[in-house]
Design goal:
This is DUF2784 domain-containing protein. It contains five helices and no strands. By secondary structure, it is an all-alpha fold.
Length: 134
């Protein structure tokens, strides 16, 4: 039972990390301090995809399966838990492009919001300075 829960925990952590890495930039629109954590998550996802690195969570899931007497799954998390569920198998490149567009859109929106907020702050300071002149 414990190893089954470990598998569920590893897969759940994978989904949470993937969601944050892809969509966390939109959360940063509301909570700007999240942006650097999201950038790090997105970069980790990019490195994993480009280099086919073996993710530590996949390693944990595979070890738990072995302890249950099951063989490790072929491929990684995306192959086993995302392809065929969130996008059709065989369309990995299209999914990667969609993810890149989502991440870049969130970053662009974040940058625009930060810029707008800075301009408002500067404008407010300028208005205050103008009032002191009168």
């Amino acid at each position: 039972m414990g190893y089954s829960l470990l598998i569920v925990a590893a897969v759940s952590a994978h989904y949470a990390f993937l969601a944050f890495g892809v969509l966390g930039g939109f959360l940063a629109w509301r909570w700007p301090r999240l942006i650097w954590t999201q950038v790090a998550a997105a970069l980790w996802l990019l490195i994993i995809v480009l280099t086919n690195l073996y993710c530590p969570l996949t390693w944990l899931e595979d070890r738990a399966r072995e302890r249950l007497g099951e063989p490790p799954l072929e491929g990684g998390f995306l192959d086993n838990h995302v392809a065929g569920i969130f996008y059709p198998s065989g369309y990995e490149r299209v999914a990667q492009i969609v993810v890149a567009v989502l991440v870049l859109t969130s970053w662009t929106g974040f940058w625009l919001l930060q810029r707008r907020n800075r301009l408002r702050q500067l404008d407010a300071r300028g208005d205050a300075a103008d009032h002191h002149l009168v």
